[in-house]
Amino acid sequence: MKQQSYKNHVRLHPLFHFLLVPLSALTVIGSLLHIFPKFRGSMDLWYAIVLLMASVALAIAAVLTREYAKKVQDRVIRSEENFRHYVLTGHLLDPSLTLSQIIALRFASDEQFPELCSRAAQDHLSPDDIKRSIKTWRPDYLRV
Questions:
Q1: Model-level pTM greater than 0.85?
Q2: How far, in whole angstroms, is CA 142 from its chain's centroid?
Q3: Closest CA to 104 of 71, 67, 137
């Protein structure tokens, strides 16, 4: 696996990003077209409406599935990083750190982590600024 860094840490899941999302969008657009008589042909209007509702439900399910997985991972990351900070310093993370900052801090090595946590809280660093400040990258290959 390629060494992870700031430039390549974003993960795209091909089946989700390049297949499910486009297919869901095309299904909604295609079923929406069937509402209009010009595109419906011999299809009954009620059937076209049911097709539209089903395709919208599929698109919503696809988006929610992704969002739920990300929310669970965000909660796990917050707990892991809070515990890592406690192990390294004997103190919990600064409560003023936002979830986005904590998620960005997970890439910092143990040597840099406590100092970068303090800087992020005091200077209100953005997640992107935090990631750019990391000297020794700690990869996260398991992020969904």
A1: no
A2: 12
A3: 137
